[in-house]
Amino acid sequence: MPTDSQRLGDFSDLIDNAGAPLVIYDPATTRPNPNYDPAKPLTIDNLQYLRDPFPNNRLPLNRFDPVAAKLVGFYPKANTNVGPFQLNNYWINSPFENRADGVIGKVDHTLTQKQQLSVSFNTSRGLRKSPEFFPGPANSGNPSYNFDNGSLTVQDTHNVSPRVIWVYRGSAAYGKTTSLDAGEDADYPQQLGLNGLFSKFFPKFFSATIFQSGRARPFSETGPKITAAPHRYQSITRRILSG
User: Fold this and answer.
1) What one-character-per-residue DSSP string does the chain give?
2) Mean pLDDT over residues 116-120, rounded?
3) pLDDT (tens digit, 9 = 90+) per residue, 128-153?
4) 8 shares a domain with 102
5) Which long-range contacts (CB under 8 A, 24 or more apart) does 24-32 make?
6) In whole angstroms, what is the distance from residue 36 CA to residue 153 CA?
7) Cα–Cα distance between 216 and 202 in angstroms, integer?
8) Predicted local confidence at residue 90, as pLDDT
9) Residues 105 and 170 both lie in one domain
10) Is the same domain home to 226 and 112?
11) pLDDT of amino acid 222
């Protein structure tokens, strides 16, 4: 996570994986190198372009991208310092929860000596709460949702003769998942200053060194009370012949 000083543009503590300081160059100062020799290999002493570093690795606040300046406020602050070089400066304990209540049942009834009726059913409903990488709308973890599903199967087995058995089976199943509120009413793109987005959910951002934020598919996975309720029906008739 960004350190407190980095949030204010001070990257004097920025280091690489080996602990060496990383210099941030000002792209606005990019200019051709008058001493560049195209006949020689490209090296640190033979660069095609030159740039000046920011003094003391500090970025002026007026050079911050407005969206990035607002985005950093959605990132939690560093809360630990495990290992060298500030590589592991954030820790959270967010367990996975999968709470479900359900019933499974089956009833077999012999109608006659040659006919048997069987009914089986199951139902389950509950909450699947995914771990959060960090709290708030910028969380990039999997979405949480409520679920409700079940099925019913009826089977009629009829011994027509010593050689022939008829089996009639019909089944129906349903399933519904309802995602938990992702805060579309907050209109996060507008809060961040992003224009032209059709969605009002928190956008997904990628960074090379900072943990990503937001989710890739907000409508299908994290919509406000987005509900999917598929139903399935099946009917099977079998004739079994004995040898």
Assistant:
1) ---HHHHTTB-TT-B-TTS-B-PPEEEEEEEE-TT--TTS--BTTB-SEEEEEPGGGB--GGGS-HHHHHHGGGSPPP---BSSTTSB--------EEEEEEEEEEEEEEEETTEEEEEEEEEEEEEEEPPPSSSSTT--SPP-EEEEEEEEEEEEEEEEETTEEEEEEEEEEEEEEEEPP--GGG-HHHHHT--S-S--SPPPB--SSS--BS-S-HHHHS-TT-EE--EEEEEEEEEEE--
2) 95
3) 888 888 888 888 878 888 899 999 99
4) no
5) 24/53, 24/54, 24/57, 24/59, 25/51, 25/52, 25/53, 25/54, 26/51, 26/52, 26/53, 26/54, 27/51
6) 79
7) 10
8) 85
9) yes
10) yes
11) 38
Spatial contact of 108 and 121, defined as CB atoms under 8 Å apart: no
Band of the pLDDT at 28, cuts 50, 70, 90? Answer: very high
Looking at 59, 74, 89, the residue that finishes a domain is 74
Query: Between residues 118 and 129, which one has the greater pLDDT?
Result: 118
Between 221 and 81, the more confident residue is 81
- For residues 107 and 113, what is the distance between their CA atoms, to the nearest angstrom? 17
One-letter amino acid of 63 = R
Residue 86 inside a domain? The answer is no
pLDDT digits (tens, 9 = 90+) for 148-196: 999 999 999 988 888 888 889 999 998 888 877 666 677 888 889 988 8
Beta bridge pairs of residue 234: 171
**63, 9: one domain:** yes
Domain range holding 236? 97-241
